[in-house]
Fold this protein.
Amino acid sequence: MRERGNKRIIKGVVVSNKMDKTIVVRAERLVKHSVFHKYMRRYVKYKAHDEGNACNIGDKVLIVESRPLSKEKRWRMRTIIERAK
């Protein structure tokens, strides 16, 4: 499947799948502290479209940017990288 344009791709972990065809994905990034110069973890949660309800909590997934699908959904689940144990 070819993607059109330059869409952002984010890797994250599924933290909720209670909604129908929707998952909540938590993405992590490292930010350097301005004073102490240590790296801190910052998290962002995205709502992503999961057409087949295939994801479970703890799965590592790739999500890709898309058009607005609902009030808060702007991402689609592309692939499941690793299943939860």
